[in-house]
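Journal club prep, shared notes

We agreed each person brings one worked example of a sequence with its structure written out as tokens. Mine is DUF779 domain-containing protein. I'm keeping it raw so we can talk through how to read the token line rather than staring at a rendered picture. Sequence first:
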Amino acid sequence: MADKVTATPAALELIAEIVADHGPVLFHQSGGCCDGSSPMCYPQGEFLIGDHDVKLGEIGGAPFYISGAQYGVWKHTDLIIDVVPGRGGMFSLDNGRERRFLTRSEICALPPGEAE
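Then the structure, token by token:
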């Protein structure tokens, strides 16, 4: 699968800052309520990827996963990870930096034969 996730320059800058402080990271987008609505950034090895999670690609050298259920809903969407002012998710490494990651999207054209 081609990468279905990209990052803005501001997001790449924040990723580099976090990696400098914590080492390699990964992202997970669960699609749940509250903190799960934002992409969460974790140290690699401290978040278990589920059997149904889907890797969308990498941003800033960090793998980016989405829950399988959320992928089913967003499979025709390209995600764009950006940064806005505010607090990150409670367990996300962007918390406490007064900037947080935000998922934006771009709807993709349906491949031939997949229109519903």
